[in-house]
Please model this.
Amino acid sequence: MYKCYLKTRSTLFCLYLVFSFLPVCGQNSERAIVDLQKARMLIDSLDKQFAQYYFNGDSVAIYKMYTKDAKFESLKGNEIILSWGKQIRNSIKNDTRNLLFTTTSLSADSEFLVELGVYELKDSKGNSKHTGKYLVVWKQEDGNWKLYRDIGL
Model:
């Protein structure tokens, strides 16, 4: 019952995030036009970089991919690095260090990229061990796209 409640709450929160960006996107008719094909290539490369850091066990590098005011689920600040450190240690113990992201949807405006996707954790033999869905809001900080909101669905 509690898992169902969490799933529903997470889904509603994600929908709130997505729909809260819609009015912002429509207000400025002179906003910069984002090339979605280039944005998709950028996000794919950032997802691969994240997965490589995960495989290498580098929670510090993962943490640096987040904006200063980022949230990972409900975590923020140093809680993010601690969480990724714990997940990496578990992945080493469980042989699930191979992480693959697949973007299923990407929306953009001049300030944010909103990525919906699926992830898969594989063992060292390439067997799928776990799959899930995610929603990530990317934001530019110091000229680089970084994770601003990161939510598992």
About this structure: The first strand starts at residue 66 and ends at 72.
